[in-house]
């Protein structure tokens, strides 16, 4: 692809337009605030002493619950846990807890450091989850856009052992509109912030990394997603060879993940089924 074609394929914010994008961001915040109002949980827990980054736990109660760890998007340089808990009430009603971590945004943090932090969040859930009402043996990870990439980096192998975790610590995954071979990002505007070269991009691409254990996964994209994101899911799905590919009709890059607030939606039902199967 030419640089201009890559920008069209991956610049979903420009595709949406500023007015629609701003409305989506307002929906993220409003839906997240409504979802957690009055919900049992624990806010602002430091999960990584090195960075000081924090996470929220929502929807606990009674016996330790299976947990959905949601990694927010924003091209690694925007958004936060405060606008990313819109699925918490729906999952709570289904007996599932939600964990939403922050991570240091680019360019303050390198992408390698962001990946390290996300893996540290998974490690925290495994080591300390039980004392916060979470079942460390039933961790499902998901995320949207850049969070889909970070989900992929939690799915692959090689990082669990050094952290003292079992290779199958992530029991299932649901990346939305993920980026799995991020080498094209070196040629689009986002690279002004993440500052990757091809060698580092390859080393941070889930589709190019080994995984002896392949957890079940549902790869979700939107019918009206950016062409690059649709292509990425269609690339990684057969490579992973342990999951389903779901293209949600009448949705785009930004609203498809909001369907997780609805247990009857295609993604909502798939997530519930995925968690209950682990």
TrEMBL record:
Query: Which species is this UniProt entry from?
Result: Actinomadura darangshiensis
Protein name in the entry: Alpha/beta hydrolase
Keyword NADP included in the entry's annotation: no
Domain BD-FAE-like: where?
Answer: 63-155
- A GO MF term: hydrolase activity
InterPro entries registered for this protein in UniProt: AB_hydrolase_fold, BD-FAE-like_dom, GDXG_lipolytic_enzyme
Keywords, alphabetical: Hydrolase
Pfam families reported in the protein's UniProt record: BD-FAE
Q: Which residues form the signal peptide?
A: none
